[in-house]
From TrEMBL:
The lineage of its organism: Bacteria, Pseudomonadati, Pseudomonadota, Gammaproteobacteria, Vibrionales. This is Macrodomain Ori protein. Residues 94-119 are annotated as: Disordered. InterPro entries: DUF413 (IPR007335). Residues 105-119 have a biased composition (Acidic residues). Belongs to the MaoP family.
Amino acid sequence: MSETVFRHGKKRFYDTKKFPRGFAKSGDFTLGEEELLILYGDTMLGLESGELSPENAEEQHFVEVLANPELASSKIERVWMKYVRLSRGRKRFHTLNGRNKPDASDDYTDDEPSLVEED
């Protein structure tokens, strides 16, 4: 993590509303991604909201990536884009049942001959 000049956040970053058990335990983030979010998330949120201004080229590029997500090149930028997509996008919900219920008449038919012989 020392290869970056990105500022550490003033406090550790958690999103207890969308990820109440933590980023990694949600199953969406790896342990490394969780560490990046916790260490730098407060700074990234500040840069995104405009509360902080970029202090170096890496932070300036991050601000540009916010407008054009396809420009994300560093791990920090990619993990923030992933976080934004998962926390602010629509959550997919998969049911075990189908949408349309079959008619009751389709479930059982009495077309087969009876096995009991009549005398």
